[in-house]
Structures are given as structure tokens and as C-alpha cells.
Amino acid sequence: MIPLWLLVLVLLFAAVTFASHFLFPSVRWFFRRRAEKVVARVNKRLAKPIEPFKLARRYDTIERLVFDPEVIMAVNDYAKAEDVREDVAFEKARHYAREIVPSFSATAYFSFGMRLAKWLSRFLYKLRVDQFDRAEYEAIDPDATVIFVMNHRSNMDYVLVTYLVSRAGALSYAVGEWARVWPLSGMIKMMGGYFIRRKSRSEPAARELYRKVLARYVQMATAGGVTQAVFPEGGLSVTGAMTEPRLGILSYIIDGFDPEQRDVIFVPVALNYDRVLEDKFLIKAHETGKRRFRPPLFTVVGGVSGYLWARLRRRMTTFGTANVSFGQPLSLRDFAQSNAGATKAVGEELMVRIASVIPLLPVPLVSRALLSGATNEADISAYIAETIASMPPSVAKPRRTPVQMTTDGLANLRRRGLLAGDAAITYQDSDKAVLAYYANSILHHFPEV
Question: Of 124, 144, 213, 388, which residue is 20 to 30 A from 288 by alpha carbon distance?
Fold first, then answer.
């Protein structure tokens, strides 16, 4: 007679063996067949079908990445620099690869992610698209890799652009370390996002190894035709104005570019808001010089609850307008042939193209008028009319009249308690930074003489 504990152990091992040999493969086959049907159905309505690289098993992509010849060379360099065995250095590279490579799920992206992005965008904002030349975008080579390059105003940028380009393909984002929290990190990886370390306290050799693994992943994805979205500014603007580009991800794409293979098309995307959800945290970060501005949980919960309560009482509808414009695409193959120092030149050119199509919205225009000394609706409207008339022809004119822009902008700012008075409009000195933040978003359109 065998002991009870031994019987339980034998049955447990038998169950595990049965599951691993018969049950788990069947379950995996069922879900993979289901995913393949979703991909086939989605590809019929996408302008650019989902690329095989994106659909490859995560394990296979990790293995391909860590055994890449350039990564192997970086592993050897790390082992020599740190005086460790090569197998230890190799496991370090594998750890980085696991950290970077996403676990894309077409089912999660198109069944859940797209619906959430659409609902959230329309629930929070009046969404508008200003400049978009359909013929210009339809002329893009379907075999080219498309990279959407955007200014970074808010974490809502990810949501808005994901929704707006949903018919173009499935986007792959480079996401900062701020989002590496459970369960958000898992959701982002399922949506095709990959995490990057903006700053690292590691030793120089470890940083070089990490950068090589990241660079090779980005280059593999680009060579595989994966549609990507990149924020060249690196982080959110804390002043409201555009900042100088950081060429990290762009340099990886350009350094790995082979003009004999598929072209890379950069698509400039400009975003602007009547209300950036994180504006006061960003302003505080600018004032203190500390960019780690994760809002406290109770502040977030209080803000969400207050907004929902205002919506239920019909005190407000949305946070105003969120506007997106698309600039003139840039072919890397054509641009590199006529420009030396391609990486820096591409970065500068893309930022110019983004800046030229940043939308003009009520709150930024009204904020600029108030800071210029306007104190009543008539003066603000006249100031807006004058500044719009002074814009260069390349900048799209707002669809609303100066009077409508004034009314909408003042209503938004008053709803936030930033303005007082009717005949004579005033604001507190403590709120001047908020007005400046929004005015800065369009400052480059009106260079002071």
C-alpha cells in the first residue's frame, strides 16, 4: 500500500504530462486558428495588411534577435568589458530582448484595442482632422515601411493616432518606462508596443549592449515592413512648445536602411489639444526641473470621478477639440540620396514638416490673445482674426470663425476656473503658466518681429 502523498504526487505528474502532451497543444492550436481567422478578416479592410514579422511567435522573434550576428558581437564586447563568461553576457542580452519584444495579438488589437481607442477619443474630445491629402497617401508604395512621426503633447496621443490610422494598419509604438506597470504593460505589449529605456543607470557596457539589442529589433521590424509610430521629441513637452528631436529611434531606422530593399516612408503627424489632461503636471515638471511626473492615484481617481459626475449632470460634454493634421510624407530613399548626414537632416526636416501643420485651436489662440493684453471678447476676436491672417499659406486656416474660436476658447477656460469677469476678462498670476503652456503650442506659427 503506497502512502497518500505519493499517490497524489503520481497523479499530479500524470495530469501535467497529459496536459502538456495532449491538452495544451490542442488549446494552442484552437486559439492560433482563431487568431489566423481574425487576421485574414482584418487584412481584407486594411490598406496595409499585418506583416508576417508582427505575427511571428514572440519566442521565435526573441531567438532571432539574440542570435543576430551584431548582437552576438555586442555580447562578446560586453563579456570582455565586464570580465564575465559569454553565457552570462548572452543571458543579459536575452533579458533585454524579452523586455523589448512585444507579444502582439491581432484579436486584442482589433477586437478590444481599436474599440476602446475609438470610444475614449470620442468620449473625451471633439475629434477633428485638419490637413490630410488622401491622394498623396494613396500614392505611397504599398511595399514600403510606413513610420508615423509625431509631436508629443499627451499620453492620449497614442490613443488618438491608433484610432485615426486604424484603416492603415496595426501600429507598433515605442513606449517609455512609465508604462511598465501591471496590468498596463501586458496590454501595451499585446497591442504591439515595445518598451524603451530613456535613461539607464547601468554601466556603459550594459548600456551599449541594450542599445544594440534595441537597435537590431527596430531594424528588423522596419525591414519586415512593420508600421510604426515614433515620437522624435522623446518625451512629453513640458512647456507646450515643440522641442529638439532626439535621434535615437530615428538613427536606428536610418542606420539599418538599405536603399536596395524596401523604402521607408516617414509620415509627419501633428497633434494639438484644447485641453491636455496632464497639463498641470507637465507645467510643474517644467518649473521644478523634475521630469518624473507620475500623478498620485487619488488625484487621478478624483479627476476621473469629477469629469464623469460633470458629464452626468450635463455641466460639460468633452474637454474641447483634439485636432490631428498629416504633413507631407518623406521618402528616406529619395531624401538620403540628396542629403549628407542623413540622420540629423531627416530629424530636422521631419520636425519642420510637423510644425508646419500643427492645428490652430480655440484655447491656444485665446490664451495667446489674453497674454498679449486683450481683456474682452471683441479684442480677443480681433486679435485672433489678425493672427490667423498673418499665417503663412502652408498653415491650414481654422474652419471656425474668429468669433466662434473666441466663444469656444473662453468657455473652455472658464469651465476650468482659469478666467473671471465678463465685460473685463481677468486671470490670476498663478494661472498664467497654464495660458502660456497652450499659447506655446502654436507660437512657432507667429514668429515675433
Answer: 124
- CATH at residue 426: 1.10.10
Q: What's the predicted TM-score (pTM) here? A: 0.83
Q: How far apart are CA 357 and CA 325, in angstroms?
A: 6
* pLDDT, position 24: 47
- Cα separation, 351 vs 317, in Å, equals 33
Residue 345: CA count within 13 A, CB half-sphere: 13
Pairing of strands 228-230, 194-195: unpaired
Residues in the chain: 449
- Taking 50 as the pLDDT cut, the residues of the chain under it are 24, 28-29, 31, 449
Q: What is the DSSP letter of 426?
A: B
Q: In this predicted structure, what is the pLDDT of residue 10? A: 65
pLDDT, one tens digit per residue, over 336-368 is 877 666 788 888 999 999 999 999 999 999 999
In a domain, 430, yes or no: yes
Amino acid identity of residue 98, one-letter, is: R
Q: How many domains does the chain have?
A: 2
Smallest Cα–Cα separation from 128: which of 304, 354, 351, 360? Answer: 360
pLDDT at 179: 59
Collapse the DSSP code of 271 into the 3-class scheme (helix H, G, I; strand E, B; otherwise coil) and give the result.
strand
Based on the fold, state whether residues 229 and 265 are members of the same structural domain.
yes
> Closest by alpha carbon to 127, among 161, 174, 176, 96?
161
Residue 22 forms part of a structural domain:
no
Q: What span, in angstroms and rounded, lies between the C-alpha atoms of 9 and 449?
A: 83
Burial group, residue 2, by CB count within 10 angstroms (0-12, 13-18, 19+): exposed
CA pair distance 179, 161, nearest whole angstrom: 18
